[in-house]
Each structure stands twice: as structure tokens, then as C-alpha cells.
């Protein structure tokens, strides 16, 4: 089995880019629940180091649930790792269609991540960012995947900002977006490279796919408790035979996509 490679990311950094975003989605083919997209951001220093516990990381569809959660935990503990999760909910999907709704969520995730305050350093500064010794819990949505980090960069005090310890927006750095799929994200004014089956070819996109999948699976487990009887905890909203049998028996619930044929015919 071929694992996603880091060749593209290394070439991009060699070409002068300072920051790489990668984005992927999970759940486009489901009959129920939202599409979840995840954008991740990497600096060059990540690819200069060996991350033994991330060896074997690949497309989320090729991993077990346990493996996905373990890789997600490891990613969250990498200093400087950033991500943003966004959603396209069923009502939006039914209104815009699945493709447009997903692309809108992708655009929103990249913009939120690029405009957020970040510990990414301006390459023109020879500054060192101090680390806090206090523990901070990273809440992974509303899931049980809470990651505790021991080394969170300290932000500049608002009263007397020091020129040697600045917090920059990620958008201040020359960046590029690696998009899983064959087309660029429309309306996103950033350099982009669309990559068909990118989650199987590019390491950064595979990372995004894992976080999106873990996050969505947690959401669907909660939905299963709210809407019992459909087996959402098993198939996560995909159109399995069991799901369609239960859908016919119970009828659609609030999170079913009414624009999808198997659901539409029951309305």
C-alpha cells in the first residue's frame, strides 16, 4: 500500500511559501447528517522533523476508527499544528446542492484558519516565541477527544507589545491551499492546487481527512441518541441497506437530506 508522501509539501516550501493549508471533506455521499470539512495548516519546520508516531498515516477511509483517533491525538500534540472544522448542514445541502454547500464550507474553513491569531512567526523577525507551562485543553468540538497541550505559545500582552514576541495572522505569510478534488475553491483569493484523490497522495490532505472523519463520527454518534432507530451509530448516515430499510419504516428525520433520491421518494 502506497502511503501519502510529503514530496509536494517540501517542494512548495522550497519554492518560497511559508505556510501550507490542506483541506478535505467527509460525508458528501451520506443520506443523513452534515458534510464536515477540515482545514489544516503546516509550517516548513514540521516537514524538517521526523514524527515517528505519524508514520503510516494515510487516507481516513483506509484506517480503523481507533487508528484515526490515535493519529488525531498525535497531530494535536505537534507544536504549532492548527486546524479548523466547518460544516454544511442538511438544510444548506438541500438548498445549494451537495457540491456548492461543501465548497462553501471549505472556503469558510480556510478563511477562518487564515484569519485567526496564530503563533506562526513572521520570517522577517528573528524572534523566539516563549512557551507557557500551563496546561490548555483543546476541545475537539463536543466530542470526548480532548487534547491537553503543555506548550502553548504566549500571546503578546495588549498594552506593551514587544517587537521580539509578536503574534501574527496566518494570512500575513505567503501561503497556498492544497484542495482534495479536481477543482479549486471558487472565490478563495489564494494560491491553490486541486489534487484528485489528494487524501491518498498528499500527507497534509490525509491529515485533514482524518480530523474531519473523527469529528463527523463523533457527531453522528450523538445524533444516533437524538434520532434512535436508524442505526446512525453504525453507518454514520451512509446509505447502507440497513439504513434504507429503517428509513422506509420510520420516515426521514430532521437530519436527512431531502434532496437525495432515497429520501426524496419517501416525502
TrEMBL record:
Q: Where are the transmembrane segments?
A: 20-42
Residue span(s) of domain RNase H type-2:
18-267
Top-level taxon of origin: Bacteria
On cofactor binding, the record's note says: Manganese or magnesium. Binds 1 divalent metal ion per monomer in the absence of substrate. May bind a second metal ion after substrate binding.
Any GO CC annotation of this UniProt entry: ribonuclease H2 complex
Stated EC number for the protein is 3.1.26.4
Q: PROSITE patterns given for it?
A: RNASE_H_2
Q: Has UniProt tagged this entry with the keyword DNA-binding?
A: no
Similarity field: Belongs to the RNase HII family.
Q: What is the name of the protein in this document?
A: Ribonuclease
Amino acid at each position: 500500500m502506497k502511503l501519502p508522501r510529503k514530496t509536494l509539501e517540501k517542494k512548495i516550501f522550497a519554492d518560497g511559501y511559508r505556510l501550507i493549508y490542506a483541506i478535505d471533506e467527509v460525508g458528501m455521499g451520506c443520506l443523513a447528517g452534515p458534510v464536515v470539512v477540515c482545514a489544516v495548516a503546516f509550517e516548513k519546520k514540521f516537514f524538517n522533523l521526523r514524527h515517528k508516531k505519524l508514520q503510516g498515516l494515510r487516507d481516513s477511509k483506509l484506517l480503523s476508527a481507533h487508528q484515526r483517533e490515535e493519529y488525531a491525538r498525535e497531530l494535536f500534540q505537534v507544536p504549532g499544528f492548527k486546524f479548523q472544522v466547518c460544516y454544511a448542514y442538511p438544510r444548506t445541502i438541500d438548498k445549494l446542492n451537495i457540491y456548492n454547500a461543501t465548497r462553501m464550507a471549505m472556503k469558510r474553513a480556510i478563511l477562518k484558519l487564515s484569519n485567526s491569531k496564530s503563533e506562526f512567526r513572521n520570517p522577517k523577525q528573528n524572534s523566539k516565541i516563549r512557551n507557557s507551562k500551563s496546561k490548555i485543553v483543546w476541545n475537539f468540538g463536543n466530542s470526548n477527544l480532548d487534547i491537553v497541550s503543555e506548550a502553548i505559545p504566549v500571546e503578546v500582552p495588549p498594552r506593551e507589545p514587544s517587537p521580539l514576541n509578536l503574534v501574527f495572522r496566518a494570512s500575513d505569510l505567503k501561503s497556498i491551499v492544497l484542495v482534495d478534488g479536481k477543482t479549486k475553491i471558487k472565490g478563495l483569493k489564494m494560491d491553490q492546487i486541486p489534487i484528485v484523490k489528494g487524501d491518498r497522495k498528499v500527507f497534509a490532505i490525509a491529515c485533514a481527512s482524518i480530523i474531519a472523519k473523527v469529528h463527523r463520527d463523533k457527531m453522528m454518534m450523538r445524533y444516533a441518541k437524538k434520532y434512535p432507530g436508524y442505526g446512525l451509530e453504525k453507518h454514520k448516515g451512509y446509505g447502507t441497506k440497513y439504513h434504507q430499510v429503517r428509513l422506509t419504516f420510520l420516515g426521514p428525520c430532521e437530519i436527512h437530506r431531502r434532496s437525495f433520491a432515497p429520501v426524496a421518494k419517501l416525502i
